[in-house]
């Protein structure tokens, strides 16, 4: 079975960078480990794109989400194109995102 291509949105990349920068203020080595672990979690979506729970924000269609520690990773799956689009990474203490653009 062929893996799906994983595509990160600019927003998701920015969120990952912000997470790393925040952690690096006090623990630079931990920041690298955490961001690498989040990337690894997202990488698993290439093989298991439907592993995440369904999440349906208002008027935006179906997204899915997987978690890594306290972070929620929101994404969409395009079955025909064999692609996973990572929309954003959200801290679990925040309210659910209303939009992904």
Chart the SSEs and their pairings.
Elements: E1 5-8, H1 10-24, H2 28-43, E2 53-55, E3 63-68, E4 71-78, E5 83-91
Helix pairs in contact: 1-2
Give a brief outline of the structure.
This protein is α+β, with helices and mostly antiparallel strands and 101 residues long. 31% of the residues lie in helices and 30% in strands. It has a single domain (5-91), classed as RelE-like (YaeB-like fold, 2-Layer Sandwich).
Structure, explained:
This protein has a single domain (5-91), classed as YaeB-like fold (2-Layer Sandwich), CATH 3.30.2310.20. It has helices at residues 10-24, 28-43, and strands at 5-8, 53-55, 63-68, 71-78, 83-91. Strands 1-5-4-3-2 form a 5-stranded mixed β-sheet. It starts with a strand and ends in a 10-residue tail after the last strand. Helix 1 packs antiparallel against helix 2. A hairpin with a 4-residue loop joins strand 4 (71-78) and strand 5 (83-91). It has 2 helices and 5 strands. The chain is an alpha+beta fold and 101 residues long.
Terminal Cα separation, in Å? 31 Å
Kindly provide the name of the CATH class.
Alpha Beta
Largest sheet: 5 strands, mixed
Evaluate the radius of gyration: 14 Å
Shape: globular
What is the CATH superfamily label?
Answer: RelE-like
Quickly give the CATH architecture.
2-Layer Sandwich
The CATH topology name reads YaeB-like fold
**Number of helical runs?**
2
Biggest sheet: strand arrangement: 1-5-4-3-2
Helix/strand-derived class?
alpha+beta
